[in-house]
């Protein structure tokens, strides 16, 4: 599977995350859960234990690559059951939810006719549109769109070129959000991928785009760079892949964190115009101060983010 398609599946799993619960309580209707739909369609072999997002991501990839022909039926049932489930929870599925889903599915290579049906779309309530939400954040929609396209093109570059290009992309994102970025620079014995300013605080930047999750060693190395600067120095580690849970837990033990972490799913919400970059960084910083956790996904920090 191409890297671009893998990234699209990451985006799809993130978007579907709040459509349904992973499972339901024993006496509840199991059909209104990802596990229930998977069982109904006979896709148990693609289900993995673990976090909800990981299980959903593995299910989507397994069904897509397994040659079952059930990818479209799976998505259709998720939408159908989500409509029922979310009505009962007073958070109805919206027309925008389905329209965004259709755009992501095109990236995966699927156009599901049932999800374009006018009767279906017209029956769904309208939520806050991306354009109006982006405008309320004071962000130029056209520039965000260009950055989205630029990020997708990076997946076609060779690893070393992609690393430098990713740093440049982040600098452009910081500039668009008024964070006064500085490009990468070298000090004696170390390389800094860049820096930016949020309010009165200056953050050093570490940017990585690699296949494997970021582990404790990389986190410790960057934290060492930050801690070697002036008292109160801060750092932002942006990984396009993700961070290993074991690495995050080991990193948090016995040491105050001076860094916070962001991954591609966080970037996805920012580039979609749902959240302001400065708000994401501020929330992550506060969470780190309160819990000593360097990484927390944005869906756990902002209500209504899926």
Figure out the total of helices.
13
Largest sheet: 4 strands, mixed
Task: Measure the end-to-end span.
Answer: 25 Å
Radius of gyration: 20 Å
Measured as a percent range, the helix fraction is 40-55%
- Which structural class should the secondary elements be placed in? alpha/beta
Order of helices and strands: HHHHHHHHHEEEEHEHEHH
The overall pLDDT average reads: 86
Count all strands and give the number. Answer: 6
Q: Numbering strands along the chain, what is their spatial order in the largest sheet?
A: 3-4-5-6
The residue ranges in which pLDDT falls below 50 over 5 or more consecutive positions are none
- Give the CA-based shape: globular
Strand content: 5-15%
Task: Describe how the helices and strands are arranged.
Elements: H1 3-16, H2 34-40, H3 52-65, H4 71-88, H5 95-108, H6 118-123, H7 130-136, H8 141-154, H9 159-176, E1 185-187, E2 190-192, E3 195-198, E4 201-208, H10 216-227, E5 234-239, H11 245-252, E6 259-262, H12 264-271, H13 277-291
How would you summarize what this structure contains?
With 306 residues, this protein is α/β, with parallel strands linked by helices. The protein has helices at residues 3-16, 34-40, 52-65, 71-88, 95-108, 118-123, 130-136, 141-154, 159-176, 216-227, 245-252, 264-271, 277-291; strands at 185-187, 190-192, 195-198, 201-208, 234-239, 259-262. Helix 1 packs antiparallel against helix 5 (95-108) and helix 10 (216-227) packs parallel to helix 11.
